[in-house]
């Protein structure tokens, strides 16, 4: 796949305005203007990039037959920019553009026929400015960046993203959430470390851990939180639980009946009601055993179906009643990932 082929994007000027159409409906001759993205109808500022002879067509997401078109003469450096249906345009070069990166995260959009650049013209963040074709390479009015809204269906896997698109292209928050929903939590955390959009969009992972823990069971032992400190629980807030990585080394007292267990419990409301518990590793054995478990909605569907906005997740344990039961846990580690 070529770098831009099939991408749906927002096109942002260096002044924070987005390239879009002026009318409610896209049609031949529709004037191109800039929009304040917070006030604009998303469909009016969304574009699809498709390959063309010698470059690309920038198509309206409303009607893919309507493309960005250089209106007027090639030498008219302040000529207007409109939408025009591809099949009605004899001079195809007037609606073909190329993208030239400046190495700083921005692109120049260059019309193939004239060699002129798409320019926001006015140094303003207000809506309504009509971009033109211009011949200056240095002016900030000619700087644009692409914020990807959607990849071509089925075209990319997570590990291909960095090599399939230019590094200068930005991802929209909607797309970041979409990618994070199918990436593993370690990949998502790495992306948060290197990409501001990910840090601003995806919640950070939460770690609960303990180096060494030991407890003797009460005669009438019951399931209880592993950590007694309320701060050592995970609040989902308004986020979606993506996955949990759980690992430890553990054993019981080494003889007699086997009863020790570890759970993830979902706690709801001010009454602290436990609405669901997920057994993690089965029963603790008499000898030390290492556990390493990655929980997702695929292999533990009930856990992820039960959790609601505002629920808390706690690690619980059962040592075993009746006398003599103990539970030893070393290097306990839980990583909770969200999107």
Number of domains: 2
**What is the fold-level CATH name, i.e. the topology of the largest domain?**
Trefoil (Acidic Fibroblast Growth Factor, subunit A)
Shape call: elongated
* Order of helical and strand elements: EEEEEEEEEEEEHEHHHEEEEEEEHEE
Class based on secondary structure composition and strand pairing? mainly beta
Instruction: Tell me the strand percentage band.
Output: 35-45%
Q: What is the CATH class designation of the largest domain?
A: Mainly Beta
- Helix content range of the residues, please? 10-25%
* Average predicted local confidence, pLDDT: 82
Q: Identify the strand order in the major beta sheet.
A: 5-4-1-12-13
Main beta-sheet annotation: 5 strands, mixed
What is the gyration radius calculated from CA atoms? Answer: 28 Å
Poorly predicted residue ranges: 153-168
| Separation of the first and last Cα atoms | 28 Å
Number of strands: 22
Supply the number of helical segments: 5
How would you classify the quaternary structure?
A: single chain
CATH architecture of the largest domain: Trefoil
Structural description of this entry:
- The chain is mainly beta and 339 residues long.
- It has two domains: 8-171, Trefoil (Acidic Fibroblast Growth Factor, subunit A), CATH 2.80.10.50; 206-338, icosahedral virus (Jelly Rolls), CATH 2.60.120.660.
- Helices cover 11% and strands 39% of the residues.
- It contains five helices and 22 strands.
- Strands 5-4-1-12-13 form a five-stranded mixed β-sheet. Strands 15, 16, 18, 19 and 21 form a five-stranded antiparallel β-sheet that branches. It has a four-stranded antiparallel β-sheet with strand order 14-22-17-20.
- Strand 12 (144-150), helix 1 (161-164) and strand 13 (170-171) form a beta-alpha-beta unit.
- The chain is elongated.
- The chain starts with 7 loop residues before the first strand and ends with a strand.
């Amino acid at each position: 796949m070529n770098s831009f082929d099939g991408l749906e994007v927002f096109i942002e000027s260096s002044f924070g305005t987005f390239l879009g159409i002026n009318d409610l409906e896209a049609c031949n001759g529709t004037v191109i203007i800039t929009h304040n993205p917070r006030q604009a109808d998303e469909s009016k500022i969304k574009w699809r990039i498709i390959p063309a002879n010698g470059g690309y067509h920038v198509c309206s997401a409303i009607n893919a037959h309507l493309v960005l078109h250089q209106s007027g003469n090639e030498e008219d450096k302040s000529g207007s920019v409109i939408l025009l249906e591809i099949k009605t345009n004899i001079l195809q070069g007037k609606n073909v553009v190329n993208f030239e990166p400046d190495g700083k995260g921005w692109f120049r959009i260059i019309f193939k026929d004239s060699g002129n650049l798409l320019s926001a013209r006015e140094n303003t963040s207000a809506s309504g400015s009509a971009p033109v074709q211009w011949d200056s390479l240095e002016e900030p009015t000619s700087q644009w960046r692409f914020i990807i809204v959607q990849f071509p269906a089925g075209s990319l896997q997570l590990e291909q993203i960095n090599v399939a698109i230019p590094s200068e292209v930005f991802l929209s928050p909607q797309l970041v959430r979409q990618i994070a929903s199918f990436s593993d939590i370690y990949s998502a955390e790495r992306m948060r470390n290197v990409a501001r959009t990910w840090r601003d969009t995806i919640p950070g992972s939460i770690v609960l851990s303990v180096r060494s823990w030991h407890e003797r069971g009460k005669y009438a032992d019951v399931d209880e939180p592993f950590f007694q400190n309320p701060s050592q629980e995970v609040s989902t807030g308004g986020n979606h639980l993506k996955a949990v990585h759980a690992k430890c080394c553990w054993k019981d007292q080494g003889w007699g009946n086997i009863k020790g267990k570890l759970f993830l419990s979902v706690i709801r409301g001010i009454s602290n009601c436990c609405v669901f518990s997920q057994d993690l590793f089965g029963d603790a054995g008499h000898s030390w055993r290492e556990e390493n478990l990655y929980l997702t909605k695929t292999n533990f569907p009930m856990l992820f179906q039960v959790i609601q906005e505002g629920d808390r997740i706690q690690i619980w344990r059962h040592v075993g009643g009746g006398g003599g039961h103990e539970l030893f846990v070393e290097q306990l580690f839980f990583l909770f990932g969200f999107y």
